[in-house]
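Section 5: illustrative case.
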């Protein structure tokens, strides 16, 4: 299989950009048929051998089928409209608000069509409407959408195969991550289950009742936020047990930092989010490569002394269903559910002696690290796939 770049062949300008001279542009209604299903979610679905496609990533099972063959499916409305796609070649059934694209012309490879359709659908449908969002997709919006095609089935198949190979790697990693997460969940239930020797103690008692060990972040308003300066950690950066870095990072002015007398965070601080969803989730602040770091008022900074409690152990406790349930029951507010720092401090947990805390934390943290490495590997493959799609689906790189 030879890889060619655009310097070795002619390109032409089109409404879809610069494409190889021998590529074609088809409207979907020129190369495929479109239909919808005849079943609603109220229809009884039996547990069966055939997939039933609904308007989400969830796939039910059914004992009958209305279609047998190759098709691409997408949601017509509801959650994820225009973004949920499935490719299938076999027997299946589908919801009445799911569009089934089928009956491809002989010079069209269905799996290649799927990749083109899924990668370009939303942007091109948006170009057909003045709305800022698409709440529902009409049949004509799909039928008028334009797709790029290489001239031969062989090249279409080569592109689809290359992309599906990466998809297969991503799916295997997904399955492995799910398996490892289930194993970790089981380990947490076993290792964090209190026994009679464990001490019952409130969060504030662990902090020895000291504000400097259990305090809120700073009240930062929009006027203080900028694009560089002192790094601001927001509630969105706090995942369940792990720190979540964002592309859109927020900062506050140095003058605001001084004026507000902000509290500087330290690597290893335990940050507890008091704002749903879910309230009570926590993470340990890693080294994020910033000189000064602060956090917002809806985040509690927890710094128990190591002789009393191991922060890695507490981070695991704060990821359990039991802990999150306790926090949820003490949340107030109507539109924005949150727990006060005072109420958070009154919650009691059970902990073993410090050496046992460390041993448990080591086991669970090692499992977290393994999962994080797999997630990083998955993200790498997703980035590779994204780059491949940009090259292969536009003809910038040819597989012949």
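Designed sequence:
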């Amino acid at each position: 299989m030879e890889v060619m770049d655009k310097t070795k062949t002619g390109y032409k300008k089109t409404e879809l950009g610069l494409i190889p001279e021998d590529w074609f542009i088809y409207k979907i209604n020129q190369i495929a048929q479109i239909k919808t299903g005849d079943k609603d979610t109220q229809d009884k679905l039996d547990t069966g051998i055939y997939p039933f496609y609904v308007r989400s990533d969830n796939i039910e099972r059914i004992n009958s089928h209305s279609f047998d063959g190759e098709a691409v499916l997408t949601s017509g409305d509801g959650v994820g409209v225009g973004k949920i796609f499935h490719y299938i070649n076999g027997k299946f059934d589908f919801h009445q608000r799911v569009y089934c694209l089928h009956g491809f012309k002989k010079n069209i490879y269905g799996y290649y069509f799927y990749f083109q359709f899924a990668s370009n659908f939303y942007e091109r449908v948006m170009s057909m409407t003045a709305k800022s969002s698409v709440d529902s997709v009409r049949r004509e919006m799909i039928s008028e959408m334009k797709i790029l095609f290489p001239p031969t089935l062989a090249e279409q198949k080569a592109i689809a195969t290359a992309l599906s190979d990466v998809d297969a790697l991503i799916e295997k990693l997904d399955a492995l991550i799910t398996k490892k997460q289930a194993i970790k969940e089981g380990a947490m239930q076993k290792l964090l289950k209190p026994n009679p020797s464990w001490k019952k103690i409130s969060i504030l008692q662990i902090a020895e009742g000291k504000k400097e060990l259990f305090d809120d972040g700073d009240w930062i308003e929009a006027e203080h936020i900028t694009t560089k300066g002192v790094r601001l950690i927001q509630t969105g950066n706090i995942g369940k047990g792990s720190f979540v870095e964002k592309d859109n990072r927020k900062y506050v002015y140095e003058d605001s930092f001084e004026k507000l007398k902000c509290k500087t965070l330290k690597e290893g601080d335990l940050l507890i989010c008091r704002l749903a969803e879910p309230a009570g989730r926590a993470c340990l602040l890693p080294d994020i490569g910033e000189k000064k770091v602060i956090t917002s008022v809806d985040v509690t900074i927890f710094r128990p002394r190591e002789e009393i409690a191991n922060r890695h152990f507490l981070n695991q406790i704060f990821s359990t269903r039991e802990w999150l349930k306790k926090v949820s029951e003490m949340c107030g507010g109507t539109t924005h559910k949150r727990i006060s720092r005072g109420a958070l401090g009154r919650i009691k947990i059970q902990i073993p002696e410090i050496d046992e805390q460390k041993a448990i934390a080591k086991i669970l943290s090692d499992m977290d690290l393994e999962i994080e490495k797999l997630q990083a590997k998955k993200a790498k493959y997703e980035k590779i796939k994204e780059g491949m799609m940009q090259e292969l689906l536009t003809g910038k790189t040819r597989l012949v």
